[in-house]
Amino acid sequence: MKTNTQSIDFGSVTGGPLKLLRWEGVFIFILSILLYAQTGAGWWRFALLLLAPDVAMAGYWLGARWGAIFYNVAHSYIGPLALGGIAVAAAQTAWIPYLLIWSAHVAMDRALGYGLKYPDAFKNTHLGHLGRRLA
Q: Alpha carbon of 45 to those of 11, 12, 14, 56, 109: distances in Å?
């Protein structure tokens, strides 16, 4: 099996917009933590589940294309927002801590520069190639 080690340039955010997206991650992470504190849920749950979305990286065992799909589904704000909408509609406030943990994880990743993945390689993200320093 031949592997392509060269990343395809799909494009990524640069300059001021990149910095804005990274700072947005910082603020959403802080807000998620502050809101989680208001739920009264135990901090052991937060610590235990904060990295749970990274289980989606197992999709890379199926190849870069499938890995990117699984990763992006778990690392988009769409999931926690949808869970929040369902929780409110179903009057299931017990789900709120989980969506806040999930949004905290996504925000933490964005703040650290881990963006949504392109289908060619794990390190190729919408926030740039992992390993490149923020300018």
A: 37, 34, 35, 19, 19
